[in-house]
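Friendly challenge for the regulars: who can give me the structure tokens for this chain first? No prize, just bragging rights.
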Amino acid sequence: MDIAIHTSRVNKYFGTGNGRVHALKNVSLDIGAGTLTILKGRSGSGKTTLLNVLSALDMPDDGIVEFLGEDIHSFSERKKEKLRRYQMGFVFQSIALIPVMTAFENVDFALRLAGYEEDRKKRVNEVLGRVGLSKRMEHMVNQLSGGEQQRVAIARAVAHKPKVVFADEPTGALDTASGLAVMQLFRELVEAEGITIVMTTHDPNLMELGDAVYEIADGRLVK
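First reply, four minutes later:
Bragging rights claimed.
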């Protein structure tokens, strides 16, 4: 199996002096390409910190993080920004759609930011169709349910064909049925688009849908 992300003995600290917090402690893992990987743990366990380090939103204080075989610790800020823009997609619990745009416009705007050079209209129709919103794409954000908004956010994250999508508690604000629908959509996207998805959750009902599950407790991987 090809490896999308590799980490070795990653440590992350916050604060100084007596208030210093050891947020990640010697975390080593491999995330397979084309898989749905779940990072589980309670609030404050370090799973979001790990997700931020894996996605180059934050840097480890020591250790190695390789994205598709490249050590991102050595990247310049500009190169990390380009990596996030072109090779990664992001889905957040807060959804963060642009409220003055329709579902179609939200996804199209993301494609323009990513410099997508193929037929944008065709791709927007394709990904919104894949998430089941073909008939809702001209609706404004406030005309969509919470579950529909999250599906737009997922379509936006995968539209530019990233290598890896990072999702931080993507089902946290949804009811159980909508949360399961999002997870099933992730599974379909992994299989149909060949992307890698790394997500955090504390919901035990979602674990069986992952290809790999890593538990984080007090900043450590639990074997």
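The chain has a mean pLDDT of 93. The first helix runs from residue 47 to 54. Your move, everyone else.
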